[in-house]
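Sorry, explain these tokens?

***
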Amino acid sequence: MPRSALKDGLSKQARYRAGKKAAGLKEVRLWTFNTANPAFRAQLKRDMVAIRNSPGEADDIAFVEALTDWPAEER
């Protein structure tokens, strides 16, 4: 059974956002690539081939791997 309208006239989502805003938070929207998009996949394959055929491939890969280890784990 549907709920009756609330006195504030706001939807559940609007109330949720208002509560978060009152708590000092702000909404941030993040757009990212649609990896299921055929155009994206085709561009990704072209980019991978270009990297693979690059004379500095080993240096490029080492650089990316160094970034993924940052900050270094303490053992």
Q: What stands out?
A: Residues 20 and 26 are 7 Å apart (CA to CA).
